[in-house]
Amino acid sequence: MRKLVLLAVVGLLAQLVDGSLGMAYGVTTTTLLLAIGTNPVAASATVHLAEIGTTLVSGASHWRFGNVDWPVVLKIGVPGAVGAFAGATFLASLDTSTAKPIMSGILLALGLYVLLRFTFKGLRKDRLGTPLRKRFLAPLGLFGGFVDATGGGGWGPVGTPAILASGRLEPRKVIGSIDTSEFLISLSASIGFLAALGSQGINFSWVAMLLLGGVIAAPIAAWLVRTIPPRVLGSAVGGIIVLTNSKTILESVGITGTPTVTAYVLILALWIGAVAWSIRAHRAEVAADAAATDGETERELVGEPA
């Protein structure tokens, strides 16, 4: 019973982060399932089945708050569904002992990318309104869907930073569109897993608890996306992913004992530093924007041209 409650809480927290940042539900929940001993294929299948419900509710909530660009959803979601089905069947064909370090390696790389991207780059704002082309979104969707199915998560960490980095769509619509399109990826990946394995290894009570937590959090996250600084949250989530997946990677190369503890301390210190850096950078951005606004207001009052 305690494990089920924990899964519901993790599902809730993961969806809060995913719905407000556009990433990390699958990565976070898959990491937990791997940590408690679930085999990689069952972990990814469990998470994607739960995501069918959470992404449906999340997409509807983002649509309700005006956070969805439907052309982007279709241009990236359909290729993403193809990639997800291919990734699911590929993962199902791997031996468990081979799949676990591969999955953790994918998650670690994604977490490191998210951490560095949001800590040092922030969000680009000089290209807002420029159309996102299919030749950019289709390959991105295909790759993101494949990574998502094989890594147990990755649709958001691949798609959200890439579109944000383009600077062509405002952040809330990037997040809402990625979350909404993820329904297609979750559905396609689940079909792939069930076709390859049936229900083998899938604990449907775990699916239900992850789904319950995610459904509760989805509307809240769609509202929070307007207020939470993505830069700070991105650094925090990226650090969590890196820290939690380091254990499997270190064990797979035979590193244990004192070196492992040292590695954890180092990662934790870097993570705390990254979050602090992001908070300071966000505050500096807010102060700069406020100063620019005050300057424009002052010029208007004295009749000077802006």
Automatic annotation (TrEMBL):
The chain crosses the membrane at residues 40-60, 72-92, 98-116, 136-155, 175-197, 204-225, 261-279. It is found in: Cell membrane; Membrane. It is a multi-pass membrane protein. Keywords: Cell membrane, Membrane, Transmembrane, Transmembrane helix. GO terms for cellular component: plasma membrane. It comes from the Bacteria. It holds the Pfam family TauE. InterPro entries: TM_pro_TauE-like, TSUP/Inactive_protease-like. Belongs to the 4-toluene sulfonate uptake permease (TSUP) (TC 2.A.102) family. PANTHER family: MEMBRANE TRANSPORTER PROTEIN MJ0441-RELATED, MEMBRANE TRANSPORTER PROTEIN YTNM-RELATED. This is Probable membrane transporter protein. It comes from Janibacter indicus. The lineage of its organism: Bacteria, Bacillati, Actinomycetota, Actinomycetes, Micrococcales.
